[in-house]
Every structure is written in C-alpha cells, then in structure tokens.
Amino acid sequence: MRVALVICTWFATALAFVPPSTSVRHRALRADPDDEGYAPIGSLIRQGPVPFFIRLVDPDKYERSVQKYMLEEGCGRREAQGNMDAYFENPTSWTLQKLREKDGAPKYDYATANTTPKQLILTAAWALIVLALGTKIFLFGW
Q: Where does the secretion signal sit in this chain (predicted)?
C-alpha cells in the first residue's frame, strides 16, 4: 500500500512536466498567440498543491475555468492560469484582492507570483524536504 502511494506520488510529479494543451480551440481564445501558458508544475510553484492536483485530477474543470476567465477578462492564457490557480488555492483571498483592485488598488500579477530565483530555490528546498519526509514515513514509518 505504501509503495503504491509513493509510486502514485512520483507519477503525479512526472505529469507536472507535461506541457499545456495547444489545440486550435485554445489558440483561438487567446489574446496573445505567443502566450502558451505554463505546465502543471507552474501551478505547483505559484500557488501550491491544491491547483496542481486540480489540474491533474480534473483537467477539464481547470481548462473550463481558465477559458471562462480569458473570455470574461480579455486576457492571455498565462494571466488566466495564474488567477485560476490563486482562486483554487484560496477563493476568499482571491475575491478580496479582485474587489480591492476594483476600488483602485494595484493589480496583483498572479502569473508571475513566486517565480523569482530566490523563491524558486526556497520552494525547491521545501519540496525536497517534504518528499524526503513523506517517502520515509510511507516506506519505513516513524
């Protein structure tokens, strides 16, 4: 059982590196034809495990949400993905930020959140610690 869980975890991590869909239907809805969005690992880096697992478990729901946001806001895929990742991670905070923006607050760029080199190094270190600890617990117990 533990080995199967570890294998599933590693498999899900490998799927994170699959590039996003680039079908004709998706390209037609983009504001910028060069805006390809980012792979599931981008969701994990920017907003954490919740949007990452939504992308892996229910990709149709994620894609519908991104497409709807693109149409409503008239933005590119990367911006829509960043906003939907933030929404899936914490809908309340995302909604509050959007309300603040309507009241004149500066627009928060969710598409580039947590992508500075320093933040990427910290995220990678934390991910390695969590994976190592999780593997130890699942394979060997406490």
A: 1-16
Write down the residue that tokens 């880096």 correspond to: 45
Question: Which residues span the domain enclosing 132?
Answer: 2-140
Rounded to whole angstroms, the Cα distance separating 129 from 61 reads: 31
State the pTM of this model.
Answer: 0.67
Residues 54 and 90: beta-carbon distance below 8 Å: no
| Residue 100, token pair as written in the block | 């603040």
Regions of the chain short of the pLDDT cut 70? 1-35
pLDDT value of position 34: 57
CB 37 within 8 A of CB 77: yes
Tokens 């990709």 correspond to: 59
Phi and psi at residue 17, in whole multiples of 5°?
A: -95, 5
Q: Cα 107–81–105 angle (5° rounding)?
A: 10
